[in-house]
Amino acid sequence: MQKSSIKDIRYEFFDLVFGDEDGLICIATSHKIRGRDSFKRFFFEWPRESANMLAFIEQKEKHHNVWFAVTMFDRREAKKEYARPTRIVWADLDSCDPETVDPPPPIIMVSSPGRYQALWTLDGYVDPQIAEDYSRRIAYKYHDNGADVSGWDIGQLLRVPFTRNFKAEYQEAGDVYPTVELTRILTGMEAPVEIFEGVEKPTDVPEAVKFDVDMPADDILPDVPETIRKYIGLMEDAPAFMSRMEDDPDDEADWSSLMWNLINMCFECGMDELETFACCRVSKVNKYRRDNRPERHLWLEVLKVKQRFQRIAEYQHEAVSFTMPGIYDEAEDDNFTYIDMYREWGMKRTDAPPQYHDLFAFMLLSAILSANLKLETTYGTVRPNLWGMVLGESTLARKTTSMRMCEEVIANIDVDIFAASEGSVEGIISFLANRPHQVSLMTRDELAGYFNQISRKDYLQGTKELFAQLYDVPRIFRRTLKKQTYTVEEPIFMVMGAGIRDEVYHSLDESAITSGFLPRFLIVCGDTKLEAVKPLGPPLQEIQDGSNPVIAHAQHLYNTYHRNGQVKLTGGGTEVTVDRPIVVDVQLTPEAWTEFSRIDAIMRESSYHSALSHVMLPTMQRLSMSLLKMAMLIAASRSEPDEDVISAEKRDIVSAAKYVQDWGQYSIEACMNVGKGLNERSLSKAHRYIKRHSGVSRGQFMRDNHLMKREADDYIQTLIERGHIRIDRIGKATHYIAID
């Protein structure tokens, strides 16, 4: 069999096993001589990296055992909690003849002479725990025939077809290694779930491997209409909830998303698992009833969402004790920078919080300089492209106003930099493909809506993962979409946006943190007090006549750094001269590297030892990298290149640390609030109000937050018990004082 045909059949095999769902395929290898000591796992995005995966297998199979995990994963970790829904059932039949197995497996592999592995494809995707249960049933049913009862778990590894089996026993037999044969691969043989539901559950199994989801009896389930009446007033989006309960989905609707969304709605408003299950089983979006699936599948999904909410509650409880570590020494900072100049200008024009202007000053510098600045480090090249978002409570916060100011300056310098504020993954990549080595800036003044779209709309699936890849400015970015391959050289991608704080938090879940998507943003929160609002008036003279030094200096920086030149590229024995942007090297002084290393160590160690290290560590690491990028921009804004080199000094690191010190707590707050239910978000909102108006009277607190007596009592008592506020009584009046 020719290599090309082997690769084609392998692709057909993986396509049959994993289908058109996105996920991470785990490929494991071990060297034929070093054995277990060389065991490693590698992850490939399916189907985007299918060609890379097949090439990797072809490279490794010469001297390695090569396996694949039977389920795909959400993260680059082969753990059960990250396993994705699957449509296959598997069995390591070992010496059991597959022809004696019922149902007959449509995929059969011979891993070595007389040893078999089998796969079945289902007629739909099921929870990985359900697939594991079916695999367990097959294994124990045919155990007496030779099936391996240790080969049914979610993380099971099976050998890749046409690779060789390098077991030690074959070395001892004269280095004759058998090839893994694919003796049967039948398409169109999807098995209904009911077939595996009918396979008898094993009874003589160790307690540790039993799988029994105890279904609640009908007589203990609450009455659905009564449950809805109890909670409908606590629903954040009651019409959407009722629509999922009563309206038939459209023909093109994503039933899985509707079901998942409904379960989350139930838990968010305070329902327990029994109330949630009772509502979901009679809802119009019950995909399990539509597909004639057992109700235990729905019950298992409800329990999984419950576990998720429990984890979020633990995160929020533990995160209260985590605060931004001290990294900034004010005594060493006497540096007046372009950021200070921009802030003063912004405060003349608007009544937005000053920290908004600080962030947008950095975004402006990043937009006009990132294509022409780089810093070489031990971990690769750093470009100072930043992502930033400003969050506030209402229109008075002037989120959009302050962002528009920044956009105006950028547009006057380089209007082509702006990408569409909405678009599919294909649209974004095609835009970037036309701007190699250049900055592309996406802006959005209502981030919550966009985050909701990229989480729910099919044509936007994979947007967060795409953005995360682009943030690091890959040397070559290649993506195949709809049979067309896009290749982008050094896409310098930026995102800038604004939104209402609670809505943005609600639009994301904890995976936005652990995946690194949210930590890539510099987050700034703020609100404008009513008494600080400026009246509408004529524009400032300096804006009308263009004499503003902020705009003039930005244009000067662009003209100074934004230069193209001819670069010689060599490869394959030839030399080619091409037009490329001249990139200025930022070189940190030894004192600057020492200061950055000190700050980076503080941030890393504080998050590593936190109870929330898996959340805080990626957040602090990204903040540390943002600090380095900000220092590069500060250095570039105060100097001009000398032979295409500029020096970043300790003072630039210290100045950047000031902003990260102030803004870091906003990122921590985001980690604490992402995914919270309605009640918890309302409590956080009440806490923030008291922090801003410490000493507020009870009456004013209730009026401003539109609270009834019982609601106010609940919030105040909870905040007191958590140690966030205390009560002062002056005469007969009650006042609330913020403690933290």
Q: What this model shows, in words?
A:
The chain has 740 residues and is an alpha+beta fold. It has 4 domains: 3-209, 2-Layer Sandwich (Alpha-Beta Plaits); 218-319, no CATH class; 330-673, Rossmann fold (3-Layer(aba) Sandwich), CATH 3.40.50; 678-738, Arc Repressor Mutant, subunit A (Orthogonal Bundle), CATH 1.10.10.10. The longest helix has 25 residues, at 295-319. The protein is globular, with a radius of gyration of 29 Å. The model has no long low-confidence stretch (mean pLDDT 84).
Q: Main β-sheet: number of strands, strand sense, barrel status? A: 4 strands, antiparallel
**Radius of gyration over C-alpha positions, nearest whole angstrom:** 29 Å
Number of DSSP-assigned strands = 23
Alpha carbon gap, first and last residue: 70 Å
Percentage beta strand:
15-25%
The CATH architecture designation of the largest domain is 3-Layer(aba) Sandwich
How many helices? 27
- Low confidence ranges: none
Q: What is the SS-derived class? A: alpha+beta
Mean pLDDT, as a whole number?
A: 84
Q: Can you give the helix content as a percent range?
A: 40-55%
Enumerate the strands of the largest sheet in spatial order, edge to edge or round the barrel: 2-1-3-7
How many structural domains are formed by the residues?
A: 4
Reading off the top of the CATH hierarchy, the class of the largest domain is best stated as Alpha Beta
CATH topology-level fold name of the largest domain: Rossmann fold
Q: How does the overall form come out from the CA principal axes?
A: globular
